[in-house]
Amino acid sequence: MAEPEVVDLDLTIDDLVPKSPERLAEEKKESGNHLYKFKNYKGALAMYEEAIKLCPENAAYYGNRSACYMMLGMYKNALEDAQKAVALDNTFTKGYIRMAKCCIALGDLSRAEQAVNRASELGGVDCASNERKAIKSLQRLHEDAQRAMEAGDYRRVVFCMDRCLEYSPSSSKAKLLKAECLAMIGRCQEAQEIANDSLRFDSFNTEAIFVRGLCLYFEDKDEQAFKHFQQVLRLAPDHKKAMEAYKKAKLLKQKKEEGNEAFKMGRWQQALNLYNEALTIDKNNRKVNAKLYFNKATVCSKLNQIKEAAEACTAALELDETYVKALLRRAKCYMELEQYENAVKDYENLYKIDKSKENKQLLHEAKLAVRKSKRKDYYKILGVDKTASEDDIKKAYRKRALVHHPDRHAGAPDNERKEQERRFKEVGEAYEVLSDPKKRARYDHGQYLSDDSSGMADFDPNMVFQTFFNRGGQQFDLNGGGGFKGSAFSFQYG
Questions:
Q1: How many CA atoms lie within 13 A of 465 on its CB side?
Q2: H or E element: which one contains 476?
Q3: 341: Cβ–Cβ under 8 A, 6 or more apart, which residues?
Q4: What's the Rg (C-alpha) of the chain?
Q5: What pTM value is reported for the model?
Q6: I need a surface site. Which of 45, 132, 244, 297 has the fewest CB within 10 A?
Q7: Rounded-to-integer distance, Cα 277 and Cα 258, Å
Q8: CA-to-CA distance for 256 and 15, rounded, in angstroms?
Q9: What separation in angstroms does the CA of 157 have from each of 178, 181, 236?
């Protein structure tokens, strides 16, 4: 039988003696450092945790794990480890620097400053200089935001908080202040998303609940908003903003409902007064105020205050540019005010939103009104209503033609004489069109008479005058009975 092979295990005495916890912990730390160097932070974290289990009183291991948590964005965990590190070794400078970094990331500037000061005591005035600069920048941004908040400049607050979050990405305070101001400027969806993220980590976060309530209030969801404000006040009875918002929401709802009730009862002026009162309660509630302005416009129309109704619709649309009812009512007001081009713009926007046959017809009518408004108003020239009879038109022509006839102004200065000739011609044109049923019908439908076969381009007002007055058997002479000497015209009364 063959001899068994001898295997050389190359063992040393160290391999035969069990390793101490301290040595094993140091090996785990070194493995963690290697993984950290190659940005494998989760792997490094696991190694540091094993090292801490083996040697739970080693400040450096907590410091390393703190650094790892920071790279993973887990600043609360990182802060706990940094605090544990300096508790074990109050001369651990890196531990204080990490504490400062974590506090800055979490938005706790007071504790960050304390940590920076302690690090400077241990490591010199230049120690933690970057952290000190960051704290100063954040303090300036918060002061700027406070001034903007007091001035009601919510967009500026949002800007400041965005800059703060570059330094403090885990600051719940900065995120929720930004969310509150986003709600104030009408960006409720973004505000709600921020509040919901905060509530996932802390379901009793009163600021997040308040922001959600504020968004619901601004979206005209009264009952849900009330529940959120009430919940905030149960958790924090002295929450000033929630208390003020709750009071405003209740009062606004009350005034709006009172106005609606007065409107239903036909008490127009009372309804108008109540809507005006409601509009003074909270200028930041854009959605509700848009509805109030529309309600006001409706009441003004009932009171025949058309200009005021159009202005109220404009105010509503400034708050909500997609408010179809306000757009439609304003267009109708513009039609009544004879501001036809403005009406066309509104109907065009309305038709883009809703391409219905009704809206198309309204747009067509507005465009037709524009065409009519740009030509001569023959009814106005003769001084008659659009419903004037044939007899009314004849009487009006007789009167106006005699007033503006050039012979009556032959001795007047050139500019006055030319003006009277122009008016005389317009009166003749007006009569020529309105006395002919077919031409009048085309005119009433907005057709340009210069484009048809009526011959208005070659129109002769003197011919119309002679035709009108040289009727019947009795002759009328301008030189007699108040006529002008040297008149070229003699005519008979019809």
A1: 24
A2: strand 476-477
A3: 370
A4: 43
A5: 0.74
A6: 244
A7: 11
A8: 86
A9: 7, 7, 24
Matching residue, tokens 């948590």: 69
Give the separation between CA 405 and CA 488, rounded to whole angstroms: 11
The amino acid that residue 210 corresponds to is: F
- Helices 461-469 + 414-434 axis angle, to 10: 60
Nearest Cα to Cα of residue 115 among 138, 82, 139: 82
Identify the H or E element spanning 28. Answer: helix 21-37
- Measured CA distances, 110 to 81, 139, 165, 435 (Å): 19, 10, 17, 90
Q: How far apart are CA 316 and CA 333, in angstroms?
A: 14
Tens of pLDDT along the chain (494 residues) come to 455 554 455 555 555 557 799 999 999 999 999 999 999 999 999 999 999 999 999 999 999 999 999 999 999 999 999 999 999 999 999 999 999 999 999 999 999 999 999 999 999 988 999 999 999 999 999 999 999 999 999 999 999 999 999 999 999 999 999 999 999 999 999 999 999 999 999 999 999 999 999 999 999 999 999 999 999 999 999 999 999 999 999 999 999 999 999 999 999 999 999 999 999 999 999 999 999 999 999 999 999 999 999 999 999 999 999 999 999 999 999 999 999 999 999 999 999 999 999 999 999 999 988 888 887 888 988 899 989 999 999 899 889 888 888 888 888 898 988 888 888 888 888 888 998 899 888 888 776 544 444 445 556 777 777 777 765 444 445 444 444 444 444 333 33
**CA–CA distance, 296 with 314 (Å, rounded to integer):** 11
- As a 3-state breakdown, the chain gives helix, strand, coil percent values, each rounded to 5, of 75, 0, 25
DSSP tag of 492: B
Question: 9: number of CA atoms within 13 Å, CB side?
Answer: 5
Token code pair at residue 31: 């493995």
Residue at 288: amino acid letter: V
- What phi, psi does 492 have (nearest 5°)? -110, 150
How far apart CA 184 and CA 211 sit, in angstroms, is 10
Residue type, 174: A
Any alpha helices (H) in 72-187, and if so which ranges?
75-88, 93-106, 109-123, 129-151, 154-167, 172-184
CA distance 26 to 1: 49
